[in-house]
Amino acid sequence: MNRRRKQAALWVCLGYIAFLLMASAFIALEAGHDCAGKDCAVCLQVARMHALLSHGTLLGMAIAGSFVLLLSGAVRSVRTAGPVFSLSPVSLKVRMNN
Fold first, then answer.
1. Which whole number is the average pLDDT over 57-64?
2. Are 49 and 27 in contact (CB under 8 A)?
3. Could you please report the per-residue DSSP string of the chain?
4. 26, 98, 23: which is closest to 54 by C-alpha?
5. CA gap 15, 21 in Å, rounded
6. Is this prediction's pTM over 0.85?
């Protein structure tokens, strides 16, 4: 199950990056179009893409920031927990004679 979650997260990240690239390319290509007036469909789509990019990047930064905080907390908790194994006579390979 853990592998499927990683793959799903990877696909979500790739989709988000593809969305950012395609929206930016659309805005760059259509920035100098011949505007038809007040109800220009291209201008409306450019404005929508701009709004999605501005809100989407803010959301992405918030998600990335929370991920960094969670990751740093996890690293700190692992460091303070101490060693996972204990030093026992068996792990030290001490011969115990009666």
1. 74
2. yes
3. -HHHHHHHHHHHHHHHHHHHHHHHHHHHHHTT----STT-HHHHHHHHHHHHHHHHHHHHHHHHHHHHHHHHHHHHHHHHH--SS---TTTTT-----
4. 23
5. 10
6. no
Among candidate residues 6, 8, 10, the one with its CA nearest the CA of residue 18: 10
- pLDDT for residue 48: 83
The C-alpha atoms of residue 18 and residue 26 are separated, in whole angstroms, by 12
Residue 45: what residue type? Answer: Q
Radius of gyration, alpha carbons of the chain: 26
**Token pair recorded at residue 74:** 């996890």
